[in-house]
Amino acid sequence: MLPYCVRTLFRASCFLFFWLCANVAFGQEPDTRWGKVSTEEWQLQKCNFDSTASAIILFEKGKLFFRNNLAVITYHRRIKLLNSRGLDYATVELPFIREDQLERISSVKAHTLLPSKDGRVRKIPVTRQEEFEQTLDARLGVVKFTFPEAVPGAIFEYKYEFTTRRLVSLQPWYFQHEIPCRYSHFEADIPGYLTYNAVKIGDRLIEKYPEDQQSEWFLENMPGYKDEAFVFQPLDYADQIRFQLSYYLKSDQGPLYGPGAMVPFVPDWEALAQRMLKSYQPFTRYEEEALDFLKEKQLYIPVNETGLQILLEEVQSIFLWNGYEGIYSSQSLDQLLISRKGNLADLNLALHMFLHAKGFDAQLMLISSRGHGKLIEDFPLLQQFNRLINRVQIGSDIYFINAVQDPYAYPYYMLDPDDFNHYGLPLIREKTALEPMRNWPQTERRFELSLNAKQAARLEATYKGYAAIEELYHHEKGTFHQEEWDLAGGSLRFEFDGGTNGISRKGGAVKVQYKSQESQLPDTILFFELGWLSAFAQSPIPPNAKRHFPVEFTYPQRETIQLSIAKSKEMELIHLPNKHLFYLPEQRGRFVYQVQETATDIVLNVDLSLREIFFQPTDYADLYSFFEQVEAALSQQLVIRLRSLPPQKSDR
To answer: What's the DSSP call for residue 257?
Structure first.
């Protein structure tokens, strides 16, 4: 379970008692009557706890209750537009699962509120022409509407009901959003025949409600989270409450009716894996058909990395991705073979069928992408996943393969970083559980800079892994640019060598060469430092910065820098940098700065590595100290004096 989570158990019989206790402790609640805006809300021009905000949620209220064995959550939200930068918040999108009428959005009511010259309030309702329901695909839908007359100072207010037949996992309530929220209130009225675990996530919520049993919560003055850097998905850490069914009443008349006993509902990862394997059986049973298909294509497929690549390319050449994700197949195998087009699950099931038929050690694996959110380990629900991929083991090497990844962006052995989100669920017949996804490809940046007294310089950069992909992207976009090194007495300028030797690719590495322009350096003292080459010259936690979320780097990585200067008669060494060696706790990161002087050269070497990508707020101090030392070390200066030598006398 994540450190932010606290599991609480509550029953409907305690609802009235805790509701009374909570209301005694509450402060002044804003006026939440429909259309009743206070003078203070009209006069509000900026958020006093988030001065950069372009819009602010004045209040939001939600209530969970049950009706006809369906879960219902009512929403009521009031937003003020502070300036024109917040116009995006004049459009509201309410997604829901339309498949089998699993979820429904109803009773939508919305209007724009504006002050008029006579002191009254103008109410401009959202009409049916401005509200519409859109079908995204066979499974998803959205109710979308735009508030009329959206101008700075306007107030948007809307309410609706969200109804779901999915009782195992209820819709979470978020107290924190992209824009600040002055007041967020949620209450839960759970009937006696159901018991839920409530998972509280977020420092503020846990600090305010440390006790185990509540049925009503509110938080005030919640800042927006959109400006937080080094975070994959802010909603992973935003203050929220999630609900999972733990017990239900079972009687002789059937579940939820009449006298009976409370039965535990305790799904685990193994049970979920077996359920999904059963649903995928139509694809996993067609090994002979897959072999016949490969024979017709006359493909030789060895059970090694080459064969893995051939099969992936073959699937991508046969089937087209329709742009939809998901963990469920959208059609039968026969339909897929006819249409040759499917969602992410369809294509990865087809790939798995071919892999298994050829004897690869392959398992299907459920994952949650970074944009979808991080998995909660003690919350075994299929709704946490949004992608189905393949896990293939060849010898001691493990490959995570997504059949719809762009082959032009990532080679077959490199999963899109968005799919690396800490854990996945392998679907195997035996006992299974969440598995860490740790087989990152080696990602490295290496810079070699050499300089002699005649100002002839050479800069060569080598990139591996994800850094190589990023550098190729820059090259294709033509964004290579001049690099200039200010030496205090002059400057050296490097530009990308656009010739055939400018960039080369071998294996998983990309090598880029720069050449120096003609530079006339005067007789002066020159100062060299290596920070301009490093991607880690600045801390991810700036001084005095207020962070609430963990720090997440894109991938584990390593960076090496070497500066080599050939000595000459025109050169006088004045100062050498100091050596450095320090680590992050548990060796999650390391920094080495070495200095070497010989009779012919001066060489500076930097080696910085990050072995982990996830750092909790409790790691802030260590992370800040580490990068503070890195920044200080990289800003050290190698000081050299260049001087002109008198002309040598002739023997004649």
So the answer is: S
